[in-house]
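ok new one. same drill as before - structure tokens go in, u give me an amino acid for every spot. 285 of them this time. try not to just spam alanines like last time pls lmao
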């Protein structure tokens, strides 16, 4: 999926949002925004949006001399979601369709995204998503693949959201004969995306059996880039491939046989999916 012209002002908004979040110094904020605008002007726009976003946020980290400027927010969101864990687990166990409820909760968690929207209400979103109609619903295909498969590759997205991913994966392990789960995390910090450290913090390593692999955050030696041949080889090791969030959809939508779970949080993604902003999606490519 290539960058749309409407993505460019969105990247500028992300940069200014990040700058204001990280520092109160307006001179530094201006420096960050100017450097990001220069990067956008000098970069070819026939790339995919995640690559451009990675470049934007690399500039932010460099200018404020912080490897993980969102670390406190990430921990806060993980803590908030973990406080809801027991209640949400009971909700899944008591549901008429535990699988569908777990899917919906995993998608609801996708609202926690500082790249697309810093203003969100997780409780309100959960209530809405539990009742909301899917714009695209390939959940039947997902169940069928899980019934036949024994290995899962699962690409996570954001902190906080990963707690609801954990609930979804626990439900899958209870319902299907899965022998191994490989979880893809960011190889280094970018916005509020989940790293291995974050995954361990919320207990994703307690799933049995599980292993982790890293995906690039745009910096050297942080893992393969989305869409790269190396990442494709990793994905192909899974009988079932599940991908969370808009960024992963943007970077992997041209690859076949992936189940994308996301909330359409911008007009470009919504249009690409023939959906509306705010729609919930479970799409098989």
């Amino acid at each position: 999926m290539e960058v749309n012209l409407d993505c460019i002002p969105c990247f500028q908004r992300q940069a200014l949002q990040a700058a204001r979040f990280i520092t109160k110094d307006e001179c530094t904020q201006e420096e960050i925004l100017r450097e990001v605008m220069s990067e956008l002007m000098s970069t070819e726009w026939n790339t995919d949006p995640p690559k451009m976003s990675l470049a934007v946020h690399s500039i932010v980290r460099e200018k404020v001399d912080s490897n993980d400027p969102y670390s406190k927010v990430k921990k806060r969101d993980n803590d908030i979601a973990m406080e809801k864990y027991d209640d949400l687990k009971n909700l899944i166990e008591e549901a008429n369709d535990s699988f569908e409820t777990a899917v919906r909760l995993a998608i609801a968690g996708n609202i926690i995204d500082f790249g697309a929207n810093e203003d969100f209400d997780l409780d309100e979103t959960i209530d809405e998503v539990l009742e909301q109609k899917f714009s695209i619903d390939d959940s039947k295909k997902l169940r069928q693949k899980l019934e036949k498969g024994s290995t899962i590759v699962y690409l996570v997205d954001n902190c906080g959201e990963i707690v609801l991913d954990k609930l979804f994966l626990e439900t899958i392990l209870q319902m299907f004969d899965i022998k191994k789960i490989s979880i893809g995390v960011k190889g280094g910090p970018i916005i509020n995306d989940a790293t291995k450290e974050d995954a361990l913090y919320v207990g994703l390593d307690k799933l049995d059996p599980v292993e982790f692999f890293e995906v690039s955050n745009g910096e050297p030696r942080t893992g393969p880039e989305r869409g790269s041949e190396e990442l494709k080889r990793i994905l192909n090791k899974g009988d079932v491939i599940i991908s969370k969030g808009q960024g992963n959809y943007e970077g992997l939508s041209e690859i076949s046989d992936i189940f994308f779970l996301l909330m359409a949080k911008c007009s470009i993604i919504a249009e690409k999916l023939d959906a509306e902003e705010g729609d919930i999606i479970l799409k098989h490519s």
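The chain is about 50% helix and 15% strand. and btw The mean pLDDT is 91.
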